[in-house]
Amino acid sequence: MSASGGTKAIVAALGANLAIAVAKFVAFLFSGSSSMLAESVHSLADSGNQGLLLLGGKKAKREATPQHPFGYGRERYIYAFLVSIVLFSVGGMFAIYEGYEKIRHPHEIEAWYWPVGVLVFAIIAESFSFRTAIKESNPLRGQKSWKEFVRHAKAPELPVVLLEDLGALVGLVLALVGVSIALATGDGIWDGIGTLCIGILLILIALVLAVETKSLLLGESAGLEEVKKIEAAIVDGNTVTGIIHMRTLHLGPEELLVAAKIAVQHDDTATEVATAINAAESRIREAVPIARVIYLEPDIYNEADAAKGPAPEATPGGPAHPTEH
After folding, report:
1. Which of 289, 224, 233, 291 is nearest to 262 (CA)?
2. Contact at 8 Å (CB) between 222 and 248?
3. What is the 3-state secondary structure (H, E, C) of 155-172?
4. 3-state percent breakdown (helix, strand, coil) of the chain, nearest 5
5. Cβ partners under 8 Å of residue 85, min gap 6
6. What burial letters (b/e) apply to 76-101, b meaning 16+ CB within 10 Å?
7. Could you report the per-residue pLDDT of 125-137, keeping only the tens digit for each?
8. Is pTM, for the whole model, over 0.85?
9. What distance in Å separates the CA atoms of residue 248 and residue 273, rounded to the nearest whole number?
10. Of the four, 54, 71, 190, 316, which is 20 to 30 A from 294 by CA?
11. What stretches of 151-274 adopt beta strand conformation (E)?
12. pLDDT at site 32
């Protein structure tokens, strides 16, 4: 659902941004407004960003290979990170440069109806794109706030499109305010100030995207709800009596790795343990369908050893404790 919803939002944003980029550039040619030039570059950069997201989604679908045994799911994270770089450099820095030049060398806006008309059109088109992104995000967001959704979403496409569209809408309002004040006062410096504000806004959004996608690239665990479901699915109370140690890792937005050391009875036979592990894996996949790579290691739980505290050499990454994960 997240993949299809993300693709729909990306395509809607791509279509809107291409149309807006052309309209803004035409308005710049007729009016000489630096805000229009900055906004046309911004929309063009956004169109390229959506292309990168679509490319990342396509590459992520490749089958696993001996060299990449866990597949290519993280391609989506890589391309989302590239989007933040493009937004920062091509969008934000260019707008700041244009705003600075306009403030230094202001000139009166000509043919004012071009930039104003295009900005109104662009606000309508971006609102449609933003509405599509919100509509596709709501089923995945659930009861989370928008801030929590952007920060904790494992699929990067929808948060990226949401922030891009939000930045575009606010940027268009800033551009409209700058152009309007410049027209009212006859002082083109206000057009440059509006452009400068657009650049600062884009850089801030790019930094947020970079931080969030960097975290995904480094590797994030499953969410708290998924972890609880996995823990409940592993223990059967008979052969598997507890979890000594567990780690989860997203190999991609919709693929989860689960590795756990599980406690079994000392007198269980190898057949009983193997049967219990197979049953636990089936329960995990039923409870959390994206848990596709599962490694369960049986061990004899020793309460005395667990009470001694952390034992990284025995359970890498943390203490040996039934509830630790």
Report:
1. 233
2. yes
3. CCHHHHHHHHHHHHHHHH
4. 65, 10, 25
5. 206, 210
6. bbbbbbbbbebbbebbbebbbebbee
7. 889 989 988 988 8
8. no
9. 22
10. 54
11. 240-252, 255-264
12. 73
